[in-house]
Each structure stands twice: as C-alpha cells, then as structure tokens.
C-alpha cells in the first residue's frame, strides 16, 4: 500500500520522485527510459493521489534547463498525467564555472520562476517553487516576503 500525505489539502504520495539523474549526468538516459520511470511512479499512485515530482531549473549539463525541457516533452506527449502530479522545482540560483551562487533577490526569484514556466511549457504548471540555496545576501524573511508578495507560497498560485 502506498503511503500518502497532503500539501494544502492535496493528497500526495509520501515518497517523491527526484528527477535530477534524468538530465544532470554525463550520459542521461533516453527520453523513453525517463518517461517510463515517471509514468511508472504516476501509475503506482492510488486514484486521486498525486505523485510528487522534484526538478531543478539547473538540472542539466547542456543546457542547464535540460530537466525542465525533459518534463516539457513528457507532458506534451502525456498531457493526461499533468493533473496526476505535483511538481516542485528548485531555482533562484546561478550556476557558472565558479559553482553555485544563490540569487534570492526579488528580481532573481522572478527571473527564475519566469524561466521555469517558460521551459516547462503549457502542459504542466509549476506547483511549488523552492529557492535551491539560502542566499547570504538576502535574509530568509526577505525571501519569504518576496514569495508571499507574488502568492508563490501557495500551491494555487498562477503567474
């Protein structure tokens, strides 16, 4: 039996599906393999319970957004699965030759969310945005205030 929990009243399986290894590896699996894995998780969930998928704006080698683009292709091919998933995406981070640099400024968060939505495409909405790292230049209170200002602290927000 699959254990469940809820986020804002939305029933979700307790064990999520992290998608990083589908794109942020030297030799990513094929779309066919990745899609089969995602579908298996969704199909194992009880009726009416969503599967928690976790992605990252930067989960890719070339391009950095490869994971989001993979999800775009998945939901374009299988739009019927969109409502059966709860998608959480990490962002607000700059990845360059020096490593990771968090950018939880208001502009950085907005830029990240806009990029995520663009790369996901029209078939799946972003359900939960997560700043990937704490930004030492921006207080957690400021970060939360920015997320709250735009309604991004709720799973029912729309951009």
From TrEMBL:
It comes from the Eukaryota. InterPro entries: NAD(P)_OxRdtase_dom_sf, NADP_OxRdtase_dom. Gene3D superfamilies: NADP-dependent oxidoreductase domain (3.20.20.100). Residues 14-150 form the NADP-dependent oxidoreductase domain. Pfam families: Aldo_ket_red. This is NADP-dependent oxidoreductase domain-containing protein. SUPFAM superfamilies: NAD(P)-linked oxidoreductase (SSF51430).
